[in-house]
C-alpha cells in the first residue's frame, strides 16, 4: 500500500513538472509570435514607430530584425 502511494506521488510530481516545463517552453515560443502579430497589426494601421526586440540570436531575432528593417523602409517611403 505504501509503495502504491509513493508511486502515485512520484507519477503525479513527474506529470506536474512536465506540464510546468511545457507551459514555460510554450510561453517562450508563443510570446515572440504574439509580439510579431501585434506589431504587424499596428503597422497595418499606419504605426511605423514600433520596433520589435531583435537581440535574440535565434530565428525569432532574425525575423524581428527583418521586420524592423521593413518598417523603417516603409516609413521612409511614406514620407
Can you offer a commentary on this structure?
The protein is mainly α and 79 residues long. Helix content is 80%, strand content 0%. α1 packs parallel to α2. The chain is rod-shaped and about 75 Å long. The termini are far apart.
Range of strand content? under 5%
Contiguous runs where pLDDT drops below 50 for at least 5 residues:
none
Structural class comes to mainly alpha
Q: How much is the radius of gyration in Å?
A: 21 Å
According to DSSP, the number of beta strands is: 0
Overall mean pLDDT stands at 90
Give, in order, the helices and strands: HH
Helical residues, percent: over 70%
- Main beta sheet: strand number and arrangement? none
**Shape descriptor:** rod-shaped
Task: Give the N-terminus to C-terminus distance in angstroms.
Answer: 76 Å
Helix count, DSSP H or I runs of 4 or more residues: 2
Question: Which key terms come to mind for this protein?
Answer:
single chain; mainly alpha; 2 helices
Summarize this, please?
The protein has 2 helices and no strands. It is mainly α and 79 residues long. Helix 1 (2-44) packs parallel to helix 2.
Helices and strands, with pairings:
Layout: H1 2-44, H2 59-78
Helix pairs in contact: 1-2
